[in-house]
Amino acid sequence: MGTLNELAARLTHAERIGLDTVVFIYAFERHPQFGAAARVIFHALETGACQGVASTLALGEILVGVKKARHPDLELRYRDVLTRFPGLTLRDADVAVMEAMADLRANYGLPTPDAIHLATALVSGARAFVTNDLRLRQVQELDVILLADWE
User: Fold this and answer.
1) Following DSSP, what letter does each residue of 24-84 receive, concatenated?
2) Does the structure show a pLDDT above 90 at 29?
3) Pairwise CA distance, residues 87 & 51, whole Å
4) Does the model's pTM come out above 0.90?
5) What CATH fold (topology level) applies to the domain 4-92+125-149?
6) Which of 62, 68, 76, 88 could cross-link 52 (Cys pair, CB 3.0–4.6 Å)?
């Protein structure tokens, strides 16, 4: 396991990172095990140490749980962060993303949502992708950074 300072250095080296939905959830809900690493990522974005990109799919995935729990204030907070956070770009799944998604699904057998998140990162010029999904480590096109690897 690496330190949180080492994680910050790795993010800076990547310059542009893709973010999986779980990164947002861990940061906002202050997850006891992974929240600190997730907050390091948002600090790096906010300070300009790196740029981030996420698929609009992340917003949809996050809002499902919030809507089920009937927390309109939290819904507004998540929407605000994903659309206005410094250093973070929310990208629609356009034709280029869909073509890259198809390649990832064909090459690695990934589920469509995971492939969309990764394809969004690739098409947006990210060099790394932050997740906690060990299955995504097989993807060779990006440096897959697992939150579980940092303490």
Assistant:
1) HHHHHTT-TTTHHHHHHHHHHHHHTSSEEEEEHHHHHHHHHHHHHTT-HHHHHHHHHHHHH
2) no
3) 5
4) yes
5) Rossmann fold (3.40.50)
6) 88
Domain residue ranges in the chain = 4-92+125-149
Residue with tokens 């910050």: 8
pLDDT digits (tens, 9 = 90+) for 135-148: 999 999 999 999 99
CB 136 within 8 A of CB 118: yes
Determine phi and psi for 30, rounding to 5 degrees.
Answer: 50, 55
Q: Give 88-134 as a DSSP string.
A: EEEE---HHHHHHHHHHHHHH---HHHHHHHHHHHHTT-SEEEES-G
Amino acid 48: pLDDT: 97
